[in-house]
Write a structure and sequence with these properties.
The structure is a single chain. The protein is mainly α. Among the domains are: 87 residues, Tetratricopeptide repeat domain (Serine Threonine Protein Phosphatase 5, Tetratricopeptide repeat, Alpha Horseshoe), CATH 1.25.40.10; 84 residues, no CATH class. Helices cover 77% and strands 0% of the residues. The chain is built from 17 helices and no strands. Helix 3 packs parallel to helix 5. The longest helix is centred in the first third of the chain and has 48 residues. The chain is elongated, with a radius of gyration of 36 Å. The protein starts with 10 loop residues before the first helix and ends with a helix.
């Protein structure tokens, strides 16, 4: 017997399957579309809240700005721009604990990000944790910056340098300035800023070389003349400093600060008993003047009831000033007076803790030079 022929599939069943498949696909497309719409709306809302927060922060309304940044993150969780804005807002509002918590979470995800490390350095610097802040500044300098890498690194290094200046960390300051010379823009203002920082770092010779380079490029630059003079002044080359201050004063005759520094330099040169070319009698006169000025400064600083050690040295100085020096003994007497001036200087350092007044600045600088 022949087998019976198989009946074709039920058309209605196939149609049902097709309808279910099409419906599911349609629902998937609709769901995807709606999800994308919702995501786009959330992103748009986050962008709007972020922009509002940035405007508020720019106006100094940091707490209101922080609210907007938090709302932006709620609309778009994990948004890096909103997180950075929130961290900056918390830092500006001095909410250091909150800022540090947020930045720590961000660094756990991306420890080499330049901006995150930079903000953490600022938080730690505000907390007075300078050594830790310096570590994060360095990580920021050598970290990853999505754009403007060189400019950002230079900016961070300058901020680190400002922190080192504030803490009078001369050795560390010099270490940061050396690479900055190659990294920083070559414009004159930036170069002069670096040169002034070299003076603060205790390296006036490097500063002087930068100022000379600028003056070869622009001989009439009064600020560069004054800067070179300051570098020479810091290096105790007062005669060269006098010449540069004089030139700067001619180029900027109305600048009171330049004139003040020139006057101080002139006063130092008039007091310096080691200046070349002066006679023995003039050296003795200057040495005696140093004793007189040092005695006045110590008496003023010590007050009406000085300790016995001060009374002893001041009595010796007063006696020396009243004594007469025979002809031919000026050189020997000058040496005695210089030793006495140094004793007065040491007594002031030991017993007087107030800063040197402007009236005694030239005296202090001359005695410091003689003590070197």
């Amino acid at each position: 017997m022949s087998e019976p022929a198989r009946s074709p599939a039920n058309p209605s069943l196939l149609g049902t399957f097709a309808l279910v498949f099409v419906s599911a696909a349609g629902l998937f497309v609709i769901d995807t579309f709606l999800a994308r719409m919702e995501h786009a709306e959330s992103q748009a809302q986050a962008a709007r809240l972020l922009a509002e927060g940035q405007r508020l922060a720019k106006d100094g309304r940091f707490l209101e700005g922080i609210e907007r940044f938090r709302a932006a993150l709620a609309a778009a969780p994990g948004d890096m721009e909103a997180q950075l804005a929130l961290a900056q807002g918390l830092l500006a509002a001095n909410k250091l604990t909150d800022a540090k918590t947020l930045l720590t979470e961000m660094l756990a995800r991306d420890p080499t990000d330049g901006m995150i490390n930079f903000l953490m350095a600022r938080v730690l610097a505000k907390e007075g944790r300078t050594a830790e802040a310096i570590t994060y500044y360095h990580t920021a300098i050598y970290g990853r910056w999505p754009k403007d890498t060189t400019a950002n690194r230079v900016s961070v290094r300058f901020e680190l340098i400002d922190l080192l200046v504030k803490n009078d960390s001369k050795r560390e300051l010099l270490a940061e300035l050396l690479p900055l010379q190659d990294e920083a823009p070559p414009d004159i203002q930036t170069r002069m800023r670096i040169a002034r920082l070299f003076i603060l770092s205790g390296s006036p010779a490097r500063a002087a070389e930068i100022f000379r380079q600028i003056l070869r490029q622009d001989p009439q630059n009064a600020d560069a003349c004054a800067g070179l003079a300051e570098a020479q002044f810091a290096g105790r080359d007062f005669r060269s400093a006098q010449a540069e201050f004089s030139l700067a004063a001619r180029l900027k005759p109305d600048n009171a600060q330049i004139q003040k520094r020139l006057d101080l330099t002139n006063e130092i040169l008039a007091l310096d008993p080691t200046r070349r070319g002066i006679r023995a009698s003039e050296r003795y006169r200057r040495s005696a003047k140093l004793v007189e000025l040092a005695l006045e400064d110590l008496n003023r600083c010590a007050g009406p009831t000085p300790p016995e050690a001060i009374r002893t040295v001041t009595a010796e100085a007063s006696g020396a000033l009243k004594s007469r020096v025979r002809a031919g003994r000026e050189s020997e007497a000058a040496d005695d007076d210089l030793e006495l001036a140094e004793q007065l200087r040491q007594a002031r350092k030991k017993f007087c803790h107030e800063p040197t007044p402007a009236s005694a600045e030239a005296l202090a600088l001359v005695l410091d030079k003689l003590a070197q």
